[in-house]
Amino acid sequence: MTDIFSLRDDSPVSEAPVSIEEFLGNSNATAVRIEVGEDARQLLPNLDRIAMVEISFPAFTDGRGYSAARVLREAGYDGELRAQGDVLLDQIRYMHRCGFDSFAPEKPLKADQVDAVLKRFDAVYQGTVDGQNPVWNLRHGN
Fold first, then answer.
1. What's the pTM?
2. pLDDT of 129 higher than 80
3. CA dihedral sign of residues 32, 37, 38, 41
4. What's the structural domain count of the chain?
5. Which of 2, 32, 115, 132 lies at a CB distance of 3.0 to 4.6 Å from 104, suitable for a disulfide?
6. What is the rounded distance in angstroms from the CA atom of residue 131 to the CA atom of residue 117?
7. How far apart are CA 126 and CA 68, in angstroms?
8. pLDDT by residue (tens digit) across 70-115?
C-alpha cells in the first residue's frame, strides 16, 4: 500500500477506487479511478456522489492527468482528487494548481519538501483552478 500524502483538512478516502466503467454501471462506489486516456467528462453527471477520484500517472512524462483534474475541478468537483503513480516532488505544485489535493506516489514524499515546493514561487503565469491571479493580469491592475 502506498502512503497517501494529503493537502486536505479531512482524512484521505480509504475506499478502493473502481474503474469508470464499473462506476457508471450502477456501482455504489464513491471512489473512482481514471486510467491514462480515459475521459474524465464521463463522470460529470455524477460528481455529487463521488468522494474521491484517483488519476493514474504511470509515467511522470504523461501529462494527461493534469487535464483530467482541471476538467473535474472546473465542473465543480470538490472531493478528494488524488494523483497516483509516478508522481515526482517537482510536479506537486503544478498538480496542486490543477486541482490535486492528495497524492499516492510510488516513492514517499516528505512534508517539509512538499511545503517548500508549494511556497517556492509567489507569482504564476497561467490561470488555473487554484484562484491565483496570474502576473500578467496583475500588471494591468486586475
1. 0.84
2. no
3. positive
4. 1
5. 2
6. 18
7. 17
8. 999 999 999 999 999 999 888 988 899 889 999 999 988 888 888 8
Radius of gyration over alpha carbons of the chain, in Å?
15
User: Amino acid identity of 56?
Assistant: S
Q: Which three cell numbers stand for residue 113?
A: 519538501
Contacts of 14 (CB under 8 A, 6+ apart): none
Domain that holds residue 13: 5-139
The CATH number of residue 49's host domain is 3.40.50
pLDDT tier at 1 (50, 70, 90 boundaries)? very low
Q: Where are the beta strands (DSSP E) in 7-140?
A: 18-19, 31-34, 52-57, 80-85, 102-105
Coil/strand/helix, residue 47? helix
